[in-house]
Design a protein that fits this description.
alpha+beta; binds alpha-D-glucopyranose; 20 helices; ten-stranded antiparallel beta sheet
């Protein structure tokens, strides 16, 4: 069953069946004022922090309720419904609904008994409030009297957990008032002029462009006894009774009445935010001009679409096009900005950026907005500790040069991170490389950036220190210790246990340092890194390769994890894909291990993280055992890893395989099996349940996942083969043999590239001929120096 489709022209996902298998969400605004909205108008908003600045109440694990509800009522018949299908939920043979999730906005249209409504939700660019623009049209042939009610349930206080559980306290610090155009909610208002004004929060819910008929500021009065959002007594009665909240639960509810002649449309605007009374008034008066939203939406679209336009592909596969051009790209920005802060799953309590998560997230947007990437790269580099390790969690108010670190009790207490992780700082190598290669901005290497705790250094030396950190934290056999964990949060290999994934990351780090050192003509570093790389290569060969595969790690008791013949977890995906990505495995071995992966780990929804799942034979540090078999790190399809297997196959030139993995795990390719997948068909989720589960194919933890960036990199650098380096751009597509041609429009260092790839003979990779502006160039490489402002590039495979 499918519930919607992609409107690629407008960069929208359109849901035309509102009874989706789960709430399908979109993001509005930014963490400065963030909002999550489902296709049924559920979700919440917050100022600055999902946990500490929560404005709209939301009940986790209760579908998507409550939300931003707009109710409509026929004042003659008394029949009522909502502008989103839920919460009233009229029968779907009478109620038609279209939800358009776009870039930074969501529009809900409904038709019910000859009334057409349109609710457009957005947060204006750089604003700290939200707008619900409503249009109601009489599409029938007789005059109608319609009531419209806007409703929002405020939290009693900004910290969401207190709001949810500390009822004996939070209910008694808040009140609501009616202020002519809006409901004003105050929190701690008795502190105004008294103890501490900074504790006072005031929120407003307003109506602009129409007259308020009745109002209510008390949830119990709005809903009525033993009722729900689906049948509020006040909507049923056609009026709000004017109750204001004093010691119960606050809400904002405003009612307006509309007389609509046939074909007549009326429009008005609900506004919601956290502002002082005077500011709220000022804002509301601006929105009396109901044409303002149109301009603001245009601005939002321009902002988003211009960035997304920096890479536009047209391949024979629409799923691939939709994801790369819009949805995967958009999700990369969302994860970049929001990290793992707030979703319908994440509550926002992680008060900062996870180091590895964010450094990886950056990779997903480098080709679309390198300047934005640069700022975050510098920020993350400044969260590296002077000895080269990285802070596992970087606080939102990170203060470089003055931070405490995992060695300090205070850091451990504040962040809950007991020590360093083995992989964090090593993610800087692929990220910095991708940025420098995309932009040619080699000056960054010499830029001086502070350390988190003390001192400062050039970025190049920061990278050297990241390597030092690994070399200073070796475990048994001279391999990098697994420390608290490596990329896999569920692997505790012990203080002296070692991680093969980290060993391969380190091998790759040496390679990147060699490239940078060569560029800088720093032969001492180049020599040293080459020596280390070779030395490490030998250890990897000796200790990490067993029989026909790379093992996953060695515990401190010298037990090898992930070897052939183990009853469980005998083959792991990441060490095989990273053996290729890191450049360690040569072509023959690379192909052999990836064939083994395909045989042992591939399923119809992607490759599993390992197999068989742990049940009885987990070692002590294998925390994955806690999860049900085929779930998350315990043998599930951990979607983040799909990007790496796609990339690895593509690096070996095996386009058929790369795209096979791509499509197995691609959300849009599962549009027709939405009831199996559950999650949004336009956004990646964290993992998919696999073969041991009775619900194989079901996905979980939507939107905020590293999958967005790894799959983007696997697609752009891997499948499309856009592989820049310091001097130019290599074109190495690895595509299915069935793709006979495709085109790409790419911005590159301020220039425009129009690339056409011809593949009449059905190859999977390779280059017969490459021309740039009509001139043949050598190999598949385009030196940046020959590029004009606009370039026609043709590659014959
Ligand atoms: C989650 C975490 C990420 C970790 C991964 C694997 O996605 O956010 O940091 O690498 O799980 O355990």
């Amino acid at each position: 069953m499918k519930y919607g489709y992609f409107d690629s022209e407008r960069r929208e996902y359109v849901i035309d069946k509102p009874d989706t298998p789960a709430p399908w969400a979109n993001y509005l605004g930014s963490p400065a004022y963030g909002a999550i909205i489902s296709n049924n108008a559920g979700g919440y908003s917050f100022v600055k922090s999902g946990a500490a600045g929560r404005l709209i109440r939301y009940r986790f694990n209760e579908q998507d309720r409550p939300g931003r509800y707009i109710y409509l009522r026929d004042d003659e018949s008394g029949d009522y419904w909502s502008a989103s299908w839920q919460p009233v939920g009229k029968p779907l043979n009478q109620y038609k609904s279209i939800c358009r999730h776009g870039t930074g906005y969501t529009q809900l249209e409904a038709d019910y008994k000859d009334i057409h409504s349109q609710a457009l939700y957005y947060v204006p660019q750089d604003a700290d409030y939200e707008v619900w623009k409503v249009k109601v049209t009489n599409s029938g042939s007789k005059a109608r009297k319609i009531s419209c009610f806007g409703f929002v349930e405020f939290t009693c206080e900004s910290f969401y957990e207190q709001d949810q559980v500390n009822l004996q306290y939070t209910q008694f610090i808040t009140r609501t008032y009616f202020k002519e155009k809006f409901i004003l909610q105050t929190i701690n208002e008795n502190c105004l002029n008294a103890v501490n004004e900074s504790r006072v929060d005031t929120r407003f819910f307003a109506l602009a462009g129409a007259k308020i008929a009745t109002y209510c500021g008390d949830r119990a009065a709005f809903l009525g006894k033993y009722r729900d959002y689906g049948n509020p007594v006040s909507v049923e009665n056609g009026k709000l009774d004017g109750t204001l909240n004093y010691n119960l639960n606050p809400c904002g509810a405003l009612h307006t009445t509309l007389d609509l002649a046939p074909n007549e449309t009326k429009e008005f605007i609900f506004l919601l935010g956290q502002k002082r009374e005077a500011q709220a008034k000022e804002l509301i008066s601006r929105y009396e001009d109901t044409s303002l939203p149109e301009k603001e939406i245009e601005k939002l679209k321009t902002y988003w679409h211009s960035r997304l336009a920096n890479l536009k592909v047209n391949t024979p596969d629409d799923n691939f096009n939709n994801m790369i051009n819009t949805w995967n790209a958009y999700q990369c920005f969302i994860t970049f900005v929001w990290s793992r802060a707030a979703s319908l799953t994440y509550c926002g309590q992680r008060n900062g950026y996870g180091y590895r998560d964010t450094v990886q997230d950056i990779q997903g947007i480098i080709h679309l907005d390198p300047d934005m990437a640069l700022e975050k790269i510098k920020f993350m580099v400044s969260a590296q500790v002077n000895h080269g390790g990285a802070l596992p969690l970087v606080k939102y108010n990170h203060n470089p040069g003055h931070e405490d670190k995992p060695e300090d009790e205070s850091y451990r207490k504040n962040t809950g991170h007991p020590s360093y992780r083995a992989d964090d700082a090593l993610w800087l190598f692929p990220t910095v490389w991708k940025y420098v290669a995309e932009t040619g901005n080699t000056a960054l290497l010499d830029e001086v950036i502070p350390y988190a705790d003390k001192g400062k250094d050039t970025l190049f030396n920061h990278l050297k220190k990241a390597i030092d950190f690994s070399l200073n934290n070796l475990g048994i056999h001279g391999l990098p210790a697994g420390l608290h964990a490596d990329w896999n949060d569920c692997l505790r290999l012990g203080a002296k246990g070692v991680s093969v994934f980290v060993a391969l990351q380190l091998y790759y780090a040496f390679e990147i340092m060699i490239r940078f050192a060569k560029f800088k003509k720093d032969s001492a570093t180049e020599k040293e890194m080459t020596k280390q790389k070779d030395r490490f290569g030998k250890i990897i060969e000796e200790r990490c390769w067993k029989d026909d595969r790379f093992v996953r790690g060695i515990t401190e008791d010298d037990v090898t994890v992930g070897k052939k013949g183990d009853p469980e977890a005998n083959i792991w995906l990441n060490p095989q894909s990273w053996a290729v990505i890191s450049g360690y495995a040569d072509e023959a071995r690379g192909k052999a291990i990836l064939d083994l992966v395909h045989k042992e780990l591939n399923t119809k929804y992607g490759a599993r993280i390992m197999s068989p799942s742990y049940r009885k034979h987990a070692f002590d540090g294998a925390l994955a055992l806690l999860f049900n078999p085929s779930t998350k790190e315990n043998g599930g399809i951990f979607l983040q890893t799909q990007g790496w297997i796609i990339l690895a196959e593509a690096l070996l030139g095996r386009g058929n395989r790369a795209v096979e993995y791509y499509l197995e795990s691609c959300p849009s390719a599962q549009n027709e099996i939405a009831d199996t997948r559950l999650m949004e068909p336009y956004a990646y989720s964290q993992f998919t349940e696999s073969v041991d589960s009775p619900f194989e194919g079901r996905s979980h933890v939507h939107w905020l996942t590293g999958t967005a960036s790894t799959v983007m990199v696997g697609s752009v650098e891997g499948i499309l083969g856009l592989r820049p380096d310091i001097e130019g751009l290599r074109l190495s597509p690895a595509i299915p043999s069935s793709w006979k041609s495709f085109t790409m429009e790419k911005s590159f260092r301020g220039k425009k590239l129009n690339i056409k790839v011809n593949n009449p003979d059905g190859h999977e990779s390779g280059c017969k001929k490459l021309t740039v502006n009509g001139m043949a160039v050598e190999g598949n490489y385009i030196p940046a120096s020959i590029l004009k402002p606009e370039n026609e590039i043709v590659l014959d495979m």
